[in-house]
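We now fix the convention by which a protein and its fold are recorded. The integers have meaning only within a learned vocabulary of local backbone shapes. A record is reproduced here so that you can trace the correspondence yourselves:
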Amino acid sequence: MKKTTKISKKQKKLRIGNFWMAGCIGCLLEIFNVQDGTLDFMDYIDIIDFDLIQEKNIEGPFDVAFVEGAITNKKEEEELRKIRKESKILVALGSCACFGGISGLKNFVRGRPFGTAKPLYKFVKVDYRLRGCPISRKEFIELVKHLKRGLPYRENTSPVCTECPLKGDDCFLKKGIPCMGPITAAGCDAICMKNGQACEGCRGPIPNANISKLFQMFEKFGMKPRDIRKKFRKFAGNAFGE
């Protein structure tokens, strides 16, 4: 997703608004994890609206609005449309905002007794996406710095396998263990694999992902088609296909 920012390079700081809809707020909290480089990064932004961490907030307009969570009702839809009008740039933050995420699992319940959960792009224009459950703080910082400098930002379109430390004989798939790595977008630094777990596909699909091939492989591992579809839908809804 490529876009030239409308933000002036002469601005000292970006006016940031952070908002959440139907989500766990984990992606917003990830932004403020204490890690190296935090103080330097804060020179780029002025957080004027973030109910979760500050009592006094300033209403828009915003240079950049980060919105976490899926849309599950009319009130959230109206709030999202208002945020869009007040923001130069709107960023979908995390899997729920990008794809529907965990909240979107209710879309697959027969009769939809719990309603639906839809990604932001179904309602408003989304300028950028930060994938993941939660997002990568490194990618967040990279995006903001690109916007501050007036540079286009590009999503990572490589598969998670390119970052995986288990490439080769230690690969989960070679051991017959279902792993979503080959069709899932990288950028997470393969954190699950580094901790001994297979990829769950939380970052959604890469362009031109060979989904049917991986589906067939999972069947050979003994998984039932119904369970495979559940695995594909867990974080990304129908983004991996129907």
